[in-house]
Amino acid sequence: MTWENYYMPSSIEEALSLLDKHQGEARLIAGGTDLMVQHKSEPIEAKALIDIGGIPDLKKIHEENGRVYVGAAATHSQVVSSPLLKEKGRVLVDAAKAVGALQIRNVGTIAGNVVTAQPAADTAIALVALDACVHIQSGSEKLEKPVLDTFLGPGKSSINPSKELITAFSYPTPTSLERTGFIRFARRDSLALPLVNLGFWLILKEDQKTVKEIRIAVGPMSTVPFRARETEASMKDVQISEEELEKAGLVIAEEVTPRDSFRGSADFKKYLIGVALKRAIKVVLDGKGVDWDD
Amino acid sequence: MNYTNLGKDTPILDGLEKVTGRARFVPDLKVEGMLYGKVLRSPYPHARLLKIDTSKAERVSGVKGIITGNNVSQHRFGTMVPDWVILPRDKVRFHGDEIAAVAANSEEAAAEAASLIKVEYEELPAVYDPELAMAEDAPQLYEDKENNIAVTFNVHTGNVDDALAKADLVFEETYETNQVYQAHMEPMGALVVPGDYERLIMWLSTQVPSMSRLRYAEALEMCSEDLRIIKPHVGGGFGAKFEYKSHILAAVLTRKTGLPVRMVNCREEDFRAGNPRVPMKIWVKLGLKKDGTLLAKDTKIIAGNGARTVYAPAITSTACYRIDSLYKFQNVRSTGYTVYTNTIPTSCFRGFGNAQMHFAMESALDTICHQNNLDPIEIRKLNGVTPGFTSIHGWEINSCALKECLEKATQESDWYEKKKEADQKGPVKKGIGVAICNHVSGNRPFYKPFDGSSSLVRLTPEGKAIVFTGEADIGQGMNTTFALIAAEAVGLNVKDVRTAAVDTDISPFGLGSFATRGTTIGGRAVYEAAINLKKQLIEHVARVYEKQAEEIKINNGKIYFAGNEEPLPVAEAMQQISYTLGGTSLVGHGVFVPNTVLPDENKYGNVSPAYPFACHIAEVEVDTETGKIRLLNYWAVHDVGRVLNKQTLEGQIEGGVMMGAGWVLGEDMVLKDGALVNPNFHDYCLPTAMDIPRGKIYSYFMESDDPNGPFGAKGIGEPSLNPVPAAIANAVFDAVGVRITDLPITPEKILAGLDI
Prior knowledge:
The longest helix of chain A has 20 residues, at about 265-285. Residues about 290-294 of chain A have low confidence and may be disordered. Chain A contains eleven helices and 14 strands. Chain A has helices at about 10-20, 35-40, 75-80, 85-90, 90-100, 100-105, 110-115, 120-130, 230-235, 240-255, 265-285, and strands at about 5, 25-30, 50, 60-65, 65-70, 135-140, 140-145, 150-155, 155, 165-170, 180-185, 195-205, 210-220, 225. In chain A, α9 (about 230-235) packs antiparallel against α10 (about 240-255) and α10 runs antiparallel to α11. A five-stranded antiparallel sheet of chain A has the order 4-5-10-6-7. By secondary structure, chain B is of the alpha+beta class. Chain B has three domains: about 25-125 and about 185-235 and about 240-275, Aldehyde Oxidoreductase, domain 3 (Alpha-Beta Complex), CATH 3.90.1170.50; about 280-445 and about 600-755, Aldehyde Oxidoreductase, domain 4 (2-Layer Sandwich), CATH 3.30.365; about 450-590, Aldehyde Oxidoreductase, domain 4 (2-Layer Sandwich). An eight-stranded mixed sheet of chain B has the order 3-5-1-12-9-10-11-20, with helices on both faces. Chain B has a five-stranded mixed sheet with strand order 7-15-14-13-8, with helices on both faces. In chain B, α14 (about 480-490) runs parallel beside α15 (about 520-545), α15 crosses α16 and α17 (about 645-665) crosses α18 (about 725-735). The longest helix of chain B is centred in the last third of the chain and has 28 residues, at about 520-545. Chain B starts with 14 loop residues before the first helix and ends with a helix. The chains are: A alpha+beta, B alpha+beta.
C-alpha cells in the first residue's frame, strides 16, 4: 500500500487537524531521510503523509524565559549554522555536524532523528545529554516529557507519528559555569554510523575546574541512547585533570555494554568510549571545538 | 618537441554530457516493448538443487519468460576454465549464485515472479577459506577439481635454494590481502534487443566488448558475427566489467521471448555477485646480501577463485611473477594455487594480482631495511631495473625512469628530513613510507591468440576526424586520449576529433581495457591509423592543389605550403578533395602488433611492449589512542613515458591513490556463513571526500619516451594503485612501529599492535 495524499500544512493547527481528520491513518513526515529509505524495504502503512517541513513555527530556534527552544522541523544544517546554539548548545551543533552528509543535513530534522529512535542517532545523543524536554501536541492536548523517555527500543519511539506532533525541544539556557560537547569516532569521516558517540553537559563549580554535575549520553551502547549514570556519579565533585579523566574513561568503559559487530568488537567500542569521554571533555575545557569534522 | 595538443590539461571530451546528466548508460536505455530481467539468486552458499517450480511465478501478470537450469542448455563454457553453465541444474555454489531469470514488463512484476519461484534445496557443507578448501576433507565444489584447485601456476628460474643458502640475510613473512569491491558507479548491466537476420544486439556496460562477443557466442551457441555489441558510456569498471553471467541471461531471455530485455544489477546484487578482488595469502622468503642486494625470492600464494573461474588464475600467476621484473632478481621461485571456495567468483581489479604482491614485497623490503639498518630508498635504487635491462623472465625493459621517480619522490616529500624527525609528543604520531611498482602496458598471455590493436581514423568532408577503435572507454578518458593522439599525429586540433562509441558492426576488434594497455597498444594503433590518414591527406592535397607532397605540412587544423602562402584550413581542403572523389571521407587504417611473445614453459618471454614504473611516498598520522589513521600528504611520481593529457593522468593517480587507500584503510567484504554482511555503500565504507589527505596528493610525471608507445606514452591505470597499500602500511609502521601484514589496516589492529 502507498499513500494517496501528501499534505504540506503551513501551521501547527492545520497539521493537527489533518492528523485528526485521518484518524490515525495519516503519518507525519519531516525530512524523510530515514523514512524514504525505510519505505523502500518496508512500505509505510499510511493513507496520507503530512509534511511538517513547511511550518515556519516548527523551524524556529530561539531563547525564551531562560530556555532554549529548537523547533521540531529545524534541519541539521539549520542547527549547525545557528549562532544561538553555537553559544548555548554546542553539543547539539557538533552532533548535527556529524549527521550523514551535507545533502542529508539540509533536509533531515532534529525531531525526525528522535522519532526514528536509532540508538546512536547523533542529535538524539546530544538531546539526551541536554536532558531536553520534548514538547508534543496531540489534538488540543499539549504535553512535555524528557527526551530519553521517548526511546523504547531500536526504531521504537513512544511518539506516535500518526497522532502526535513534536513541536519543539527545549532545555534550560546554560550558565557561564556550564559546558556541553560532543564527540564521535567512525570508520570514515562522513556518511558513517558512529562506532561510538558521546555527548555531555557539564556543570562546573565556581573554581571552573571541579565537576558539580555531569550528564553523559552515549551510543550505540544499548537499544536506546544510554545515560552513563555510574560514570556521572563517579565524576561528581572531582577536580578535572588528565589523571581524573583517565579514571573516568575506565569507569565508562566498564559501565557500557556494546555489542560485537562487523564495524568493531564490543571490547574495542568499550575502550573507545573511554577515549571519547576523555577527549570530549578535554577539548571543550581547552576552549577548542572537536576537530573530527573540519 | 613541441606538441599542439599533448601535455596539456584537456578536459575529457564527453565531460559536459556526463556532468549534465545527458550521457546515457545501460540503465538509462529504453526501447519499445522492453522487458525487465531479474535474477533469482541462491540464499545458500552450497546446495543441491532438488526441484525448481516456476508455476506460480509464471502466473504473475506481465511475466513473459522464465529460464532455469531445466530449460537451458547445460554445455560448459568459461573465460579461463570451462566451469560456467548458463544456469545450473545440479547445484548452486555461492550465496548469490544464479538459479533462474525472469523477464517481465515491469521491474516489480519481474521481482515478484522471481520471489515466487519455489526451489527445493539440499544444503551442502561449504568452505570459504581458500587454504581450508585445499584440505583433503574439505567440501568439493567440482567433481573434477581435486582439492578444489582450479589452476596451479609454477615458475622457477635460477636456483633459489642455493641462493638462499648463500644469502647474508634471509627474511620470511606471510601477508594476507582481503576481498574488496570495485564500486563502479554504474552497476553491471545489459540491454539485449532482437536484431534483423536473427541477430542479437547487446548494449553492454563492459570493458571488453570484442572479447565478450566471442564468449557470449560460445555461451549462446551462436556465431559471434550474429552478435552485435555496442558499448555506450560506461560508469567505471576497474576490472569488474569483463564477461558477466547476467549479460548472457538477458540474451537467453531475449531469444526466448523475442523481446528486448534489460537486466541491470541492483547495488546489492552487484556486491553479492560482481567480480571482486582475488583475496590472497602470500608467503614470501627473500635472500639478500648484507648491502641489500636481492639474491632470491621464494613465494607461495593461495588465492581465492570463488565459486567459478572468471580471471583469478591469471591474476594469481601475475602475483606470482610480475614483480620479478621490477627488481634485478637472479633466482626466483613461485607457486600459486587458485582455489575454489563457496564465495563470490573473483576477478580483475585494478592491479591484477600485482597490487596484492606489491603489498607483500614492498612491505617486506621495508621490514628488511628497518631490521638491518638499510635505506629503503637506496635498496630500491640498488635493485630496481634500469633502461635496456632484460629481466629474469625475459621482459625487455625499454624506457625506465624508476630511479628518477625515486629521486623525485624523495626530494619532493623531503623524505630524509622527515625520516630524521625525533620522538613525537602527544598521542598522534606522524610517519612516512615508500613503495615502488612496475606494471605492464599490455599482457601477451592474457588472450592466448594475440595481443595488439587496430584502428580506423576517418576524416570527413567537413574536416572532422572520427576515431574508430574496439578499445573501451569505461570512464577513464580513453576516448579523449585516442582523440588527442589522432589530432596530434594528423595535425588537427583535438576539438575537431572525436572517438566513436564501440559498436562491433563498425569498430575494429579491440581486446579491451585491461592490463593498462589502452594508451600504449590501443593508442599506438590509433597513431598508426592517423599517420596513414595524414599520408593520404597530403597526397590528395598535393593532387588537388597541384603542390609537391614534400612541401606540405599539417598543423593545428591547417595545411601549410612552402613559402609565404596562406595556410589552408583542413576542412576547406577536405571539401575540395571529397568533390573529386565522389564525396568520400578519407580513412586511415592502422595496426599495432607489439613485439611480445607468449611466455614459454619456463614463463620466459617478453609480455608487454612497455613497462610503466612509479614511486609513491605516503605521509600519515596515527592516533595511538583510537588507532585512527589519517592521510596527510601523498607523493606519486610516475614514469608515464609521455604526458598526453595532464588532467586525466592526475585523475587516474588521485583515483588510484584513494582507491588503494580505501582498500588498505578499511574496505572489506565481510562474509558470515558465506553471505555478504555489508552489500551496500552504507556498511561497505569507501573513502569519501572527507577522507582524502589533509594536505594533498601530489602527482609528478617522468617522460621516459618509450619507443613503442604513441609519442612515447605508457599506461597509468593500474600502476596508480599498485604501490599504495604498502606505501601506507610502511608509513604506519614508521609512525607507530606497528607492522600490519593483513589488509585492511584497521584501528583495532593498530591498537592490538600497540598492546592497548
